[in-house]
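Example with several molecule types.
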Amino acid sequence: MKHIKIIDLLNNTKTLQEVTAKGWVRTFRNNQFIALNDGSTIHNIQCVVDFENTSDDILKRITTGAAICVKGTLVESQGAGQKVEIQVTSLEILGDSDAEKFPMQPKRHSLEFLRENAHLRVRTNVFGAIMRVRSVLSFAVHQYFQQKGFVYVNTPIITGSDAEGAGEMFQVTALPLDGSAPKNEDGSINYKEDFFGKQTNLTVSGQLEGETFAMALGQIYTFGPTFRAENSNTSRHLAEFWMIEPEVAFNDLADNMDLAEDFIKYVIKYAVDNCADDLKFLDERFAQEEKQKPQAERSEMTLLEKLNFVLENNFKRVSYTEAIDILKDSTPNKKKKFQYLIEEWGADLQSEHERFLVEKHFKCPVILFDYPAKIKAFYMRLNEDGKTVRAMDILFPGIGEIVGGSQREERYDVLVEKMKALGIDEEELWWYLDTRRFGSAVHSGFGLGFERLVLFVTGMTNIRDVIPFPRTPQNAEF
Amino acid sequence: MKHIKIIDLLNNTKTLQEVTAKGWVRTFRNNQFIALNDGSTIHNIQCVVDFENTSDDILKRITTGAAICVKGTLVESQGAGQKVEIQVTSLEILGDSDAEKFPMQPKRHSLEFLRENAHLRVRTNVFGAIMRVRSVLSFAVHQYFQQKGFVYVNTPIITGSDAEGAGEMFQVTALPLDGSAPKNEDGSINYKEDFFGKQTNLTVSGQLEGETFAMALGQIYTFGPTFRAENSNTSRHLAEFWMIEPEVAFNDLADNMDLAEDFIKYVIKYAVDNCADDLKFLDERFAQEEKQKPQAERSEMTLLEKLNFVLENNFKRVSYTEAIDILKDSTPNKKKKFQYLIEEWGADLQSEHERFLVEKHFKCPVILFDYPAKIKAFYMRLNEDGKTVRAMDILFPGIGEIVGGSQREERYDVLVEKMKALGIDEEELWWYLDTRRFGSAVHSGFGLGFERLVLFVTGMTNIRDVIPFPRTPQNAEF
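Resulting structure tokens for the full complex:
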């Protein structure tokens, strides 16, 4: 008899049928009650063992982590906490789990310990929930864009272009590192002998390639891994993370903000609607975590309230210039509590300033726009004032920047001038410039760091806990 | 007035309304008829210009590739080939395209030329169609698995594990290549000083990490980029390609074959149902290409017939042993037409043998299973005969291997013995072995090379033409 997934058993109302279930033992109480989980849901099914008619040898092997197959009758449960349970008629141990050695004991482990056991942590309630929510969120991303007619584009991971300047890059090579790589006469590495015939790196963004596709297909999005070789050992940075980058021909900055806000609300709504059980569990976990904090630092809202707050409120749109005025006049600035004091227009905003705006001042998601050209990337559309660009960042409470985007500079001459001023090689970006040479048009796009979204939706606080196998400085285990 | 996408204009039955459209000029005939495309569909909308009341200066700038905005009345078309057209009342040039310089002329270009212009080729009918079909196929992949409750897992791209042995790997490093990288006393590179504190590579497969998640979440799938540093300059290989790898706890090899066949049929059906216009175009293109071939080499079926054939027929399941018998007795083997003659059981099958089985003998997709252990990977489940493993490959006409999978060796002792025999470091794969130490169970999975699927569905013949920016030896442009 084919086994039935536990999520389907729990939703089953046809009791008194013979069923088979397979899964892993979470707990075994009183030599009688197995809590069995197969990953299909956060809920376990209770399997009641007839211990008087089960050999001691088998009973001893029903340990936390063991894989088992049970056959029995699905009956209404007499106990609290579940509607149905399985009265076991036969039980087979598929794979033992030595109770002394299995690292995932039925107790609370530190997140640090669990990170070191990333291959097993997903067998816990919290990581099972996070990974299911992450999966549903990623599907929501695809569904949102596909329903709107966007074309999914896989921009290259290995890139010969290093001009974007979004961050430090990892080098990709098939050459040896020991000094024996072929060299040019001037002593530099002869990359013509490398696999791709040139120096290559891991991409920091698919935007530039994405733009070329938007200027043909109209609406496109990427969703793939991106990389930063920055030595940032923080709870907000990963060396390898997944990014979503839509790009739309004929969209201006206002359209871009509308798209980003609508998109974020859609995917959060989708998770709220489709991950109710997991989010309920994570909501309770969030509440427990908050209780550990001093009163003053506790969140004013529960996790689910935070999610609904985002869904129900417009993101506050504030120009950089307004934001600077607010920050200059703010108490932490006047009292010199900011590490970086805001003194004049043009200052780059630090995390502390973004958090003040979002968490203290506006108390809602904020879209900052029209930044000084000097602190933003070369490809952003220069405003008529000649000093600001049509950039926008979306800031979220507790997360900081979750989206960075802009209307792109569509004017060939202005773009080339900007590249020259910044020393960006025109020859290398010949293909990017072609989009402005042939049929250029207003277009806009943004990048959303997927893990920051998962962080927000799950209420976790360290980005290493929302990706299966985090890559950070000094860590590429598994 | 907000512009309307061309796909929506063409499907509109409410004529005599004022509309705005934006897009790129494909052709401009008789100073009057613009074929306008915005990438939302393969079809252009005809825009009829009132040339007597339009300045020569504007008319001259309506060139192939130019971006324009037209306003006008949507009317029933008098001409053949379209139901509606736009009677233009005003026309704005958004971005010029110098007719002398724009590489994508309205004529047939060689695929080789188009590859060198991968940033512009997507503005042609054929590449627009391919990229839309690719996008829809990728969504079908996610929808199939999500509907069945699979969890999408992003396995790591940068990996510290090189034990899978699926192919040559690219190295990822932040160290210099010129010989100045820090060294150990024995002269070897001191990778402790590299970004991750160890030697790292680009993944060749997410399977091993995926297995650890399947043993917790039950049903998982990956869909991400994978890499091979193999110097294969063929029409079937890429250095960077996208792979789909489902892994299911409690599935045996028969379940695995069922899943793979059902999955492939679902995604092809989804494309047939949702890409009708693009596939009709590609079907016509395929027919034209076939006409160029000598009669004997032409496909017996049109592209759409090939797709429907896969949907309507069971994949033929044949054991390796049966396949060897068929090949040994085959005419090309007897007449020594095979480059590698099949002499005895145990031989590895080459592309020529796979093609013979699929295209000449069975004339349908074939699933070969139960391969000799010696020619397959260490993690495959050894059969009771002690010499074959529960492997399966799916072979497609014109494509060759599209899926490779297996039931995995779930027995700790057998797996360790196999690793020892092959010199695979147990210490390095401690986490993989943990899945067999704690709650091991029968499980199976497979890998499907996404580009080979796109190749089959679009009827293209070179894998470089079904990925936006192909990476191959000596080529990482863009």
